[in-house]
Design goal:
The protein is of the alpha/beta class. The protein has 5 domains: 176 residues, Elongation Factor Tu (Ef-tu), domain 3 (Beta Barrel); 237 residues, Rossmann fold, CATH 3.40.50; 130 residues, no CATH class; 217 residues, P-loop containing nucleotide triphosphate hydrolases (Rossmann fold, 3-Layer(aba) Sandwich), CATH 3.40.50; 34 residues, no CATH class. Helices cover 31% and strands 15% of the residues. The protein has 31 helices and 34 strands. One of its GO terms (cellular component) is nuclear RNA-directed RNA polymerase complex. GO terms for molecular function: helicase activity; hydrolase activity. Keywords: ATP-binding, Helicase, Hydrolase, Nucleotide-binding. Pfam families: AAA_11 (PF13086), AAA_12 (PF13087), ZNFX1 (PF25396).
Length: 1044
């Protein structure tokens, strides 16, 4: 903390009462423009134009991945143009399609919305003036699950046209509240460019959206690349020119000595590591005093992180790359002085960011989470910038003109609202037409005078507006009818709800106030049209012009009035539109100035933190703000999963050190245009992987602490150069209950795949059914459902699995995790079941050919790993899968691959081979033998072998206990309380009656409730609870034979 801060590390550290100097860097970086640059790519507008989206032939450069670039300009322009193409190519194709056939229905890659109408305007401080529009889903033809749909999410760009796409405008979706999109008609809020805003509520439009790309993910990176030059792009000699002579960071060279005692917490002689000249010497792990939990390769990685301007650390699955990052950050933070700028940490996902920030928070609480949406409701939520800002109170920055800007903003807003008042009426009034200069004063007066004689007669038109112009138009006014969408069935979900909320929160900047309903905050004007006047076709222009000259409008023939009103309305719209757009430019400029004043306060708060965390999307979005704190160190987790450009723009002008932690063998970055993935473009090759491909220095962690050895073994074909070593903690782990010693197995089959009617995603119903029964078997064997994860490469298969598990009576109350492989990077679980899905006559294996995805899929399990898929086809098409199959085939103890899945009864040690779904039918988690165990009631258990105990079993045998007090024998079942049908009393009632508690004659039959016998198990024939599930074993009936 700076000496002048006057605050502690907790509680009051965020309060501030003293005046704060303005940080001029905020405005400098935020206002930086490339509009007048020499290079064309630097002058490209932030939002694509209609002209750009109308191009037919586009040439893009190729990413050089195995050599250096010739210049910084070539490097930056190449990545800009490739990324721009990835961002807009899909929408450009959509425009070409809709122009060829404006009446076409939507396709798997293009969404088409018709009957698009302006319904309102919202004046916001965050975005500017936004337009609310309504639309229909007739061309979709399905009911949309908006809470699980990627359609029109904030940050998407759409194209709108009122002339069947001969011309069109581009807008950004800024809000999609669920209550608005689920109503009829559906509504969203969009933002046009200031000079292109549409406010005409009478104009029907057609709207197109590309389903395959999300522009917000590109926008800020593209903008940052345009601003980068050799003089403000540190470390470019390494990143562009692949210079292998990597020096030490400037801040390390200045200090020289480092305190490494946090790395050796158990050392008796900690003073030995309190001052280490790390550029000259490094602790030897053979030293008895060097007691650390880090292994040799982790210590080697730590040395590189502390001593090199660029440190690249490869962390294969389970090798502790996050742990290594945290240890490095601990050390750096421990050596920082109070006046040093914060460290920047960026992660690919919000989940990964929360995880690493929680680790850091243990030893350093002065951190700030910037942007996005945290699921951590304790430590990290308190440290979001929003909450830090609230706890800081009023921050006085002399020279900030925030109040003056707000006054100007309100003044401009008032002018815009007065200007659009005529459009908020059902029909534009004569006064409005006169004020706009469309009609003369005499004409306006004639409306009022002429309508006065029609007031009484107008009452018959009770459903129409009661106004002079309504009287004048008469029968030409129609009420606007809201039509229902034509829908057949539901559209499949294509995004998880939590992922959707993450995207929305990142777009809004992580402000909790808008996180719940996603509505815009500002002054909203409703512009819905309740009535319309149809413009007659074929009215001669000269007739309209002649009619417009008449001073008494009621002298105009009735048949010309609708055409004349539409003419007047168009003229009024021209005047309103031009003035409104001019005012909107001013409003947008003031919003930008207001944003600067907010950023100045945020910059001050961020500069007081020791560490700032954000997603890689936030790294580019908040680049100006973060750059104003002048950070020296940038660490990026899962760096191999991020495209190169988002990492490069993190090299802020003040950065002295870049630390990349990841694994290029696992997931790569994603491109919207698949053609850009491959040679020669190679857009999906990360900076991390390009670094490795150019034989630049990097460290590989080698000791894994996740998988049991037989699971780790199948990763050997992937990590040939640096084979993984097993830590002692993974040895001797307990086997999976019910599987004997089969802790890894590939179940083979040849059942064909399929697909949904409206989705290209693949499904395999047989696999899904087999996996569902297998999961049921594991849960009946008392495996904790939370410790089981089902992985698949296809979203369609995930949906099928979710449905089957929900229908299974033993699993419907559990929370078995079902995830796609791509969403599970960085995660792990005890038992992982992998569904390969692909099985076809064309021998097409799709995603299974992607070795990076396969690496993630194979490396998530800790104790048990089970693959379900067509091994014959997959191994024939992929060398990697062939090697995996050979390893499983040659297993020393027994084959771990085959067409029969071996399951082993825990009680009798009997092995059962499962080949088909029906083979599970007579198993209850055990084998096919009778249980035969003695129950507490001295009867034998009649059930088929089961792994759960008898504590809840309800014995159905007849009661064999002693006679009751009345001398009669009980005729009930064993599990029920003894009851005498002769006397009509239970055993407990007789005992109470014997003791004089009550007279049985006074009891009503409805008051009697049977109670279980003491010392006897209760549940036997209906529901067995195991780990929160229901196991239906049999039916139970009460003593009267009624189903319970």
């Amino acid at each position: 903390m700076p000496a002048s801060s006057g605050g502690s590390q907790e509680g009051d550290q965020d309060r501030w009462t003293k005046p704060v100097a303005r940080n001029d860097l905020v405005a400098k970086y935020e206002y930086e423009t490339t509009e007048y640059a020499d290079e064309e790519w630097r002058r490209m507008p932030e939002i694509p134009t209609a002209e750009e989206l109308s191009q037919e032939d586009v040439e893009v450069p190729c990413n050089i991945i195995d050599d250096s670039y010739e210049s910084v300009e070539e490097y930056l322009s190449t990545h800009y143009e490739l990324l721009r193409e990835d961002a807009v190519a899909g929408l450009r194709d959509c425009i070409a399609q809709i122009r060829m056939d404006p009446d076409m229905d939507e396709t798997p890659h293009m969404a088409v919305y018709e009957n698009v109408m302006v319904t309102g305007i919202t004046y916001t401080q965050q975005f500017g003036v936004c337009t609310k529009i309504s639309f229909s889903l007739n061309r979709v033809g399905k009911q949309i699950r908006w809470s699980q749909s990627k359609r029109l999410i904030p940050g998407s760009i759409v194209c709108l046209s009122d002339d069947r796409f001969q011309t069109f405008r581009v807008a950004t979706v800024v809000a999609r509240p669920l209550d608005q999109v689920e109503q009829n008609p559906h509504e969203i809020d969009i933002l046009f460019k200031p000079g292109e805003i549409e406010i005409d509520s009478s104009k029907p439009m057609l709207m197109v959206e590309c389903k395959s790309s999300y522009f917000e993910a590109y926008k800020w990176v593209l903008k940052a690349l345009q601003r980068m030059r050799p003089d403000n792009f540190p470390l470019h000699r390494y990143l562009c020119f692949m210079d292998k002579d990597i020096g030490a960071p400037g801040y390390v060279e200045q200090t020289g000595m480092y305190n490494l005692s946090t790395i050796f917490p158990d050392s008796i002689n900690k003073e030995k590591f309190a001052e280490v000249p790390i550029l000259e010497e490094w602790p030897d792990l053979k030293d008895p005093d060097a007691k650390t939990s880090m292994d040799a390769t982790q210590m080697e990685a730590l040395k590189a992180i502390l001593t090199k301007e660029i440190a690249v650390v490869q962390g294969p699955p389970g090798t502790g790359k996050t742990y290594t990052s945290v240890q490095a950050l601990t050390t750096i933070l421990n050596n920082m002085t109070d006046d040093e700028p914060p460290i920047i940490v960026a992660c690919q996902t919000n989940h990964a960011l929360d995880q690493i920030l929680n680790y850091i928070y243990v030893f350093e609480s002065n951190i700030i989470r910037l942007g996005g949406r945290t699921k951590d409701k304790e430590n990290i939520l308190r440290r979001t910038l929003h909450n830090i800002r609230n706890s800081a109170g009023q921050i006085n920055i002399p020279g900030s003109n925030r109040r003056a800007i707000l006054r100007q903003l309100d003044a401009v807003k008032d002018k815009m609202r007065r200007l659009t008042r005529p459009l908020r009426e059902d029909l534009i009034s004569p006064e409005g037409l006169f004020e706009l200069g469309v009609i003369e004063k005499k004409q306006a007066e004639s409306f009022v005078k002429g309508a006065s004689g029609w007031v009484q007669a107008s009452r018959v038109y009770s459903e129409k507006p009661d106004s002079p112009i309504s009287m004048w138009l008469g029968e030409s006014i129609d009420k606007v009818e809201i039509m229902e969408d034509l829908q057949m069935g539901d559209e499949e979900a294509d995004i998880e709800y939590e992922e959707l909320k993450d995207i929305e929160a990142e777009f809004l900047g992580g402000n909790p106030g808008q996180d719940d309903d996603q509505k815009l905050y500002g002054t909203a004007d409703d512009m819905k049209n309740k009535y319309r006047v149809a413009d007659p076709v074929g009215t001669p222009p000269e007739d309209i012009h002649k009619a417009a000259q008449k001073r008494d409008v009621f002298q105009i023939p009735q048949y010309l009035r609708a055409a004349l009103y539409c003419h007047w309305r168009r003229e009024a719209m021209k005047k309103i539109d031009s003035q409104f757009k001019e005012l909107n430019l001013t409003y947008q400029r003031l919003c930008q100035e207001l944003k600067i004043t907010r950023m100045e306060k945020d910059s001050f708060l961020l500069s007081r933190a020791k560490l700032i965390g954000m997603t890689t999307t936030g790294l580019s979005k908040y680049r100006s703000l973060v750059a104003s704190t002048k950070p020296k160190i940038l660490l990026i987790e899962e760096a191999a999963e991020v495209l190169e450009a988002p990492v490069v723009v993190g090299c802020l002008p003040s950065i002295q050190q870049l630390i990349l932690v990841g694994d290029h063998k696992q997931l790569r970055g994603k491109c919207s245009v698949h053609a850009l993935d491959d040679d020669p473009y190679n857009l999906n090759i990360s900076l991390f992987e390009r670094w490795v491909l150019n034989n630049m220095p990097y460290i590989t962690l080698q000791t894994q602490r996740r998988m049991r050895p037989e699971i780790r073994e199948i990763l050997n074909p992937i990590y040939k150069e640096t084979p993984l070593q097993d830590h002692e903690s993974v040895m001797g782990r307990d086997p999976i209950m019910g599987m004997g010693n089969t802790n890894i197995f590939w179940f083979c089959h040849s059942n064909s795949e399929g697909s949904f009617e409206d989705s290209p995603s693949k499904v395999n119903v047989f696999e899904a059914e087999m996996i569902t029964k297998f999961v049921e078997y594991l849960v009946l064997n008392q495996q904790d459902p939370a410790k089981i994860t089902i992985l698949t490469f296809y979203t369609g298969q995930r949906q099928i699995l979710a449905r089957l598990l929900a229908r299974n009576v033993n699993l419907q109350y559990t929370k078995i995790q079902i995830a796609t492989v791509d969403s599970f990077q960085g995660e792990e679980n005890d038992i992982v079941i992998l569904s390969l899905v692909r099985s076809n006559l064309n021998n097409t294996i799709g995603f299974l050919s992607n070795e990076n995805r396969v690496c993630v899929a194979l490396s998530r399990a800790q104790r048990g790993f089970y693959i379900f898929g067509n091994a014959e086809m997959v191994t024939r098409k992929s060398n990697l899968w062939w090697d995996i199959g050979k390893l499983l085939q040659r297993s020393a103890a027994q084959k771990k691959i085959g067409f029969q899945l071996p399951v082993t009864c825990h009680n009798h040690k009997t092995q059962t081979l499962i080949e088909d779904v029906i083979d599970w039918n007579d198993l209850s988690g055990g084998c096919r033998q009778k249980c035969g165990a003695w129950l507490p009631c001295k009867h034998k258990c009649p059930l088929t072998c089961h792994p759960f105990d008898h504590s809840d079993f309800r014995c159905q045998e007849e009661c064999e206990r002693d006679k009751m007090r009345c001398g009669h024998r009980c005729k009930t079942r064993c599990w029920e309380e003894c009851f005498c049908e002769v006397c009509g009393m239970s055993r407990s009632e007789q005992e109470r009656d014997q003791n004089g508690y009550f007279d049985s004659d006074d009891m009503d039959d409805n008051q009697w409730t049977p109670a279980p016998k003491k010392g006897y198990a209760q549940a036997a024939t209906t529901v067995k609870a195991v780990n929160g599930i229901k196991n239906v074993v049999n039916e139970k009936r009460n003593r009267k034979g009624v189903m319970v």
